[in-house]
Design goal:
By secondary structure, the protein is mostly beta strands. The chain has a domain of 112 residues: Lipopolysaccharide (LPS) transport protein A like domain (lipopolysaccharide transport protein A fold). Helices cover 14% and strands 41% of the residues. Strands 1, 2, 3, 4, 5, 6, 7, 8, 9 and 10 form a 10-stranded antiparallel beta sheet that branches. 15% of the residues are buried.
Length: 187
């Protein structure tokens, strides 16, 4: 009943050793399957609240003119280091020195208390890096806990967190309690 003394046991131990080597190589190798030679690697950039001018941020996206990045994620901090928003784009490409185009952009804005506020979905959009105005000429949806609004085109100022929807605008209010709350007249 001693399996390891027979000639077959060395065959099995060799097979187990080979399998462990192959698995360790596959696990430690960088993901390269499923990408053709011409495809760009996924770009994942992060910024900290104390980001200096050399580190990636919303106005300093390290993407050369004419190049495209997939899976781009950037936080947006205000001057005090508070998180204002998070930008997630399926693809981003540098149009010129002052403009970046996005495909399938999802933006989450945050309140001053760092709670999620708005969810903005844009199919195709362009960010002007000087004015920090994001614009789209395609249908855009903006959602918050108490409403959903959509329009045919949008301009969204990332500094002031204000936007302008134009054309075929539809709004659905899902929670009217903030609108019907009576003002405090005890003062």
């Amino acid at each position: 009943m001693l399996l390891f003394r027979s000639g077959r046991s060395s065959h099995w131990s060799w097979l187990v050793w080979l399998l462990s080597v192959v698995l360790s190589v596959v696990i430690s190798a960088p993901p390269m399957f499923g990408q053709s030679k011409g495809r760009k690697k996924r770009a994942r950039a992060t910024a900290t609240p104390s980001a200096s001018s050399g580190e990636p941020s919303l106005t300093n996206i390290p993407l050369p003119i004419g190049h495209e990045a997939k899976g781009l994620v950037f936080p947006d901090f205000d001057a005090d280091g508070h998180l204002r928003g998070r930008f997630e784009a399926e693809t981003a490409h540098r149009i010129d020195q002052e403009h970046i185009g996005f495909q399938h952009l999802k933006i989450t804005t945050y309140t001053p208390e760092s709670q999620p506020d708005l969810q903005i979905d844009m199919h195709t959009s362009v960010l002007d890096l000087k004015t920090r105005v994001l614009s789209s000429q395609e249908r855009t949806t903006i959602q918050r806990s108490d409403f959903n609004i959509a329009g045919d085109s949008v301009q969204f100022d990332t500094n002031s967190r204000t936007g302008r929807l134009i054309g075929n605008v539809k709004m659905v209010i899902t929670d009217k309690s903030p609108l019907t709350a009576k003002p405090n007249t005890s003062e």
